[in-house]
Design a protein that fits this description.
Elements (H helix, E strand, L loop, with lengths): L21 E5 L5 E2 L16 E5 L25 E2 L10 E2 L8 E3 L1 H7 L3 E6 L9 H15 L3 E5 L3 H12 L3 E7 L5 H9 L3 E5 L3 H13 L4 E2 L5 H7 L1 H14 L5 E5 L4 H16 L9 E7 L4 H8 L25 H10 L3 E5 L1 H13 L6 H16 L7 E6 L7 H6 L11 H8 L2
Parallel strand pairs: 4-5, 7-15, 8-9, 8-11, 9-10, 12-13, 12-15, 13-14
Antiparallel strand pairs: 1-2, 1-3, 6-7
Helix pairs in contact: 2-3, 2-6, 3-4, 6-8, 7-8, 8-10, 11-12
């Protein structure tokens, strides 16, 4: 881990040659670049991941409004817009997004014996997942760098969000999906928003390899979470959680449990916490423990945490019914692994059966999520049973996508309809008077 990714790192200072309020910095070698002078997804010098850094980091009292763009002072643009991108005035294209619920779940809370449990449901965004937060910022960067075709690899949610935001921005959109491995609801979303959908004979990681090469050739602007601007939108999840929990519970949560696919949210939340600490808006002791959850059939991140490895080893064969996290090489692991370790968190793998049961538990609380989202609750339960999470902890679980993203999984997790005769007496006989 580089010193810049430490919770104890000082606030960044504007580098020479950069006039903007933000810039790009390599997390490995520290090289810096103007934010929009060229299209960059990785460091020119060493190939390391880039992240956006800021000369002035805001405190809580500098935020106003609602949704993602409430936090404009912590983002690369001043605002979001509701129409096509304007090359003369780049800004995020907003539907709008953010301001998602932080639900109470008294039944699960009592069953797990926790002091407090809340669920942040990102499935309540415009296209039904957290990806909208990243797209409102990422698509805005398109105008700034002068590219007119968008592209992504996807397990489904990214394609749905990119297609919607690309349509709003009036930009050509290309999505690559692993053939037969994406939930029908997500494919339908991308299609209805006029994205061009290509089904690749391979897995998600193969799709991402192709999209990266397209981007490297200048054929498209990549909007997977390798794109540092996308993660800026996603860090607003952390800002919303901390603000809402503080206002309603009188303090910050001890732990945030979240699903891990490409590890973009883990990286984004950790960046959010680092910046708040650097701004003096969050005490280091109040930083929540980041706790990642993966499906047992796709758990390279958990493997790295458990073994103490510096990086993840790619799993070439991954399988889980939680399609949104069916990923064998989390590209944001170099940013996310320090996040888990620096905050004192951990990572855990759970079975598909545990995920389905957690999905049903949430449904009994009135909260409908797709399988990958329920991984956070399944992982929390597993860690409570192991004794790794104490009863006095105040926990937030992140759920990332709406129930109807994967209607087939919802049907499979549910009881079958019961046939009944066409009269009231038959209904009463069946249900019991």
């Amino acid at each position: 881990m580089t010193d810049a990714l430490s919770l104890d790192a000082p606030a960044p200072t504007r580098p020479d040659g950069v006039d903007a309020d933000c810039w790009l910095a390599c997390i490995d070698c520290g090289a810096t670049y103007p934010p929009f002078a060229a299209v960059r997804y990785a460091c020119d010098d060493c190939g390391g991941l880039l992240e956006v850094r800021y000369a002035d980091l805001p405190d809580w009292d500098e935020f106003s409004g609602r949704g993602v763009w409430r936090y404009a002072d912590a983002l690369p643009f001043e605002t979001g817009r509701t129409g096509p991108v304007d090359p003369e005035n780049p800004a995020g294209v907003s539907l709008p997004e953010g301001d998602t619920p932080l639900y109470e779940v008294p039944g699960i809370e009592a069953d797990l014996g926790l002091d407090r449990l809340r669920v942040k449901h990102e499935g309540m965004n415009p296209t039904g997942s957290f990806k909208d937060r990243g797209m409102t910022v990422g698509v805005g960067a398109v105008a700034a760098v002068g590219v007119d075709r968008l592209a992504c690899a996807s397990t489904g949610n990214t394609s749905a969000a990119l297609a919607a935001y690309g349509a709003r921005a009036d930009l050509e959109t290309l999505v690559l999906l692993p053939a037969g491995k994406v939930a029908a609801g997500k494919v339908a979303q991308a299609a209805i928003h006029d994205a061009r959908i290509l089904e690749v004979d391979g897995n998600f990681d193969d799709c991402l390899d192709i999209v990266q090469e397209l981007a490297n050739r200048g054929e498209a602007y990549l909007l997977n979470s390798l794109n540092p601007f996308r993660l800026e939108g996603q860090k607003t999840i952390g800002l919303e959680i901390l603000e809402r929990f503080r206002d309603e519970e009188g303090g910050f949560p001890d732990r945030i449990v979240l699903p891990v696919g490409n590890a973009g949210n883990t990286a984004a939340l950790y960046k959010c916490f680092r910046e708040l600490v650097q701004a003096g808006a969050l005490a280091r002791a109040d930083v929540p423990k980041l706790t990642g959850v993966q499906a047992a059939g796709a758990a390279p991140f958990v493997e790295a945490i458990e073994s103490g490895a510096e990086g993840v080893e790619r799993w070439d064969h991954v399988e889980t019914r939680a399609t949104a996290i069916r990923i064998g090489e989390p590209v944001n692991a170099p940013k996310a692994l320090p996040g888990v370790r620096e905050t004192g968190g951990t990572a855990v793998a759970v079975t598909d059966e545990q995920i389905t049961e957690a999905q049903r538990e949430l449904a009994r609380e009135g909260i409908g999520v797709e399988p990958a989202s329920a991984a956070s609750i399944a992982g929390l339960r597993e860690l409570r049973e192991r004794g790794e999470i104490d009863a006095d902890e105040r926990v937030v679980c992140l759920t990332t996508g709406h129930l109807l993203k994967d209607p087939e999984a919802a049907t499979a997790a549910s009881d079958d309809p019961e046939p009944v005769g066409n009269d009231v007496d038959a209904v009463l006989e069946l249900v019991g008077e």
